[in-house]
Amino acid sequence: MIRPMEHPTIEQKGVLDHYLAGQLEPEDEAAFEEHLFTCPDCLRQAQAGEELRRGLADLRGETARVPTAAPGDETSGASASTLSFPSPPTAPARSWRSLAVAAMLVLAPLGVLALRGVDYGRQLAVAEDQLSTVRRSLDTVESELETLRHSRTRVRPAAALRLLPLGVSRAGEAAAVPVLEPPPEPSSGGDTPWVISLELTATPQRPLADAYSLRLLDGDGGVRFHAEGVEPTSYDSLLVILPQGFLEAGDYVFEVFAGDPGEAVARLPLRVGS
Amino acid sequence: MKKKGKTEDGAGDLMARIRAGDTAAEAELVERFGPTLAFLARRHTRDAAAAEDLYQETLILALEKIRADAVHDAEKLPAFLRALVRNLALKVYRRHGVSKEVPEDEHSEPVADSAGPLQHLLGQERQRMTRNVLRYLGNERDRQVLFRFYLQEEPSAAICRDLDLGQDHFYRVLHRARQRFRQLWDRGVSI
Q1: In chain A, positions 225-244, which contact chain B (CB-CB < 8 Å)?
Q2: Are A22 and B108 a contacting pair at CB < 8 A?
């Protein structure tokens, strides 16, 4: 046991790394987590380490899903070994992990066979191209996240983005107009933005475009918001973030254009409650 | 002897002010202990949205308990807060019926997945940053260290033996990766 949890001990014994890997004894884990309340530096390192661990787990899952592709260039700088799995663990797994490890032992050889010949460079280039699209969307979301992070200093349960999906009406469906309801009082989330997801539909005749233009019209036909070059997410939707006080009560319509404004590919009504 | 940290300094006074109904003291408590609580909530959940719920729930309950004079020892405030967030995480875990038994190593994300499009985007951003870290390491052996230690949870001694590494090098790799990720994380999106 490594109590008391002094900072030099933590660094010398690699406590943080063992904590992140789940390899601390319960008493040490408790002591370390209590230490985090008093040590901003350890906390920052733990936050970064935890996100790194999750990122590695994500990448491992992504690698397992990589489909077989034709050989191509190796220009992305990442070779097949970049994301290859290390050898299966030889140490006995603890408790619930034993099943997962057993499954890996069975599946890993199959995975190696399936992944052999995959052009990771090409796959990564495609993935990074998609990610650059995502990053542009994130630029918009990021400022709102900053607001949310600051809002943590206030105790209120409604510190989440409000998501309103707008979908096209299909045959046989009632054409109910989605309603944006403002919070009952400003202190219960009045400063959190609306995230509006505009559903896109693709057909063989009209596949998804690379980018769309948007207009939000009010009841009088006035343009209240417009955007160009909005790229669809991997969920085939366009994300729009609007501050809560941006629209007054009334009826609105989102018009979606493929590329330059011309004929709208979708008209999505929206109502803002009073 | 445990070093007296910032937490113990004035924590008793802070708790007394909260009990007396001082809302500024409540905000101060959130400011001082909130970041660690948020981290622990994140560690016990699968995505940021669930973590945010758990964080809020923990703070509300903590304040209720302190107001009701259920916490007496200021030095034990961190232990109390830590226990609270873990217990609430277990409660949510059971509510979602993931398993009848709570694994001992609950850091393995017990709370149900509530990921939506936004979480998906954030997850992709984290993957991009992790890729950058892997490229920065630039060495297959270093990548093996990361995967085997953080993901497969192999003992460091076994990894060092297999890869013919010294302990110093082993910890240097982990430290370097964490530092690199932290740089990216600080200037990127905190998830």
Answers
A1: 233-235, 237, 239
A2: yes
